[in-house]
Specification:
The chain is mostly helical. 69% of the residues lie in helices and 0% in strands.
């Protein structure tokens, strides 16, 4: 019997529980809205990336990286991180450890808070374990060591808030996320556009109040109770879908890898 490669976190980690939750798609959108409030981030994205030309491709690659670094083998996770670092080397300022730390903390806060508001049950110990586990993810892309507990994460946001602003790029990014360009077949399909607008609006509504106030978006629902109720209903609906249809390829591959490793002959 061979020892399985659990990757950077493994099936017993809180990271697998959080990142395998059906709310991750909405959580990713929340993270993007939050990240845009750091002026250096949006400046780098709009000036040196292909976000405008290929927004869907960039979103797909970001999701691919999170899935691979979470559920992939150790070698696969390190390879994915190396590719991200290579991209950062081509973008002026993108290797700044503080900028990378901001992006990291936005993701940790968004993934954790969205899963919990959606109904994923985590104890206080679980929550701190998740934040501590994500220090590995921060180091992987060259960020300074991230917060190691929920209290430290909250302190980080309190400290960084004076540096945040609604720059023209941030406002543009928000409009882009809420109303992205779609290729003709999708654009003509009202369900696709309506579904995206609903998910993006929910991602925005899940932001902390101070972030929603900074955006000053008229007509976007921002009540905490309404956002939480909508998120819980969405999660319950997704959980009703069989795992074989609901779970992403990285989760399925990780389970197959672990099962094959534990049942293969020595």
């Amino acid at each position: 019997m061979t020892d399985p490669d659990p990757g950077l976190f493994g099936p017993d980690s809180i990271t697998w529980r959080v990142h395998g939750d059906p709310t991750m798609g909405v959580a990713g959108l929340r993270a993007l809205f939050l990240q845009a409030l750091y002026p250096a981030v949006t400046k780098a994205v709009f000036e040196h990336s292909d976000f405008r030309a290929d927004p869907w491709g960039r979103l797909r690659r970001t999701a691919e990286y999170v899935g691979m670094s979470t559920f992939g083998s150790t070698d696969d996770a390190q390879l994915a991180a190396a590719q991200v670092r290579a991209i950062h080397r081509r973008i002026p300022g993108a290797e700044d450890p503080q900028l990378l730390l901001w992006v990291h903390c936005c993701e940790v806060d968004s993934f954790l808070s969205t899963a919990r508001r959606g109904g994923l049950r985590l104890s206080a110990t679980d929550v701190d374990r998740y934040v501590a586990e994500q220090v590995t993810a921060a180091r992987l892309v060259g960020a300074d060591d991230g917060p190691g507990s929920l209290a430290e994460l909250r302190t980080y946001f309190d400290d960084v808030r004076p540096s945040l602003a609604l720059s023209p790029e941030a406002a543009d990014a928000a409009r882009f996320l809420l109303f992205p360009p779609m290729k003709l077949p999708l654009a003509l399909g009202a369900p696709a556009r309506t579904a995206w607008a609903g998910l993006a609006t929910l991602g925005f509504a899940l932001l902390p109040r101070w972030a929603r106030r900074m955006y000053r978006l008229p007509g976007v629902p921002t009540t905490d109770l309404g956002a939480t109720a909508t998120l819980r209903a969405l999660r319950m609906g997704l959980l009703a879908v069989p795992p074989s249809q609901r779970e992403g390829p990285h989760v399925k591959a990780a389970r197959s890898r672990m099962q094959a490793s534990t049942t293969s002959p020595a």
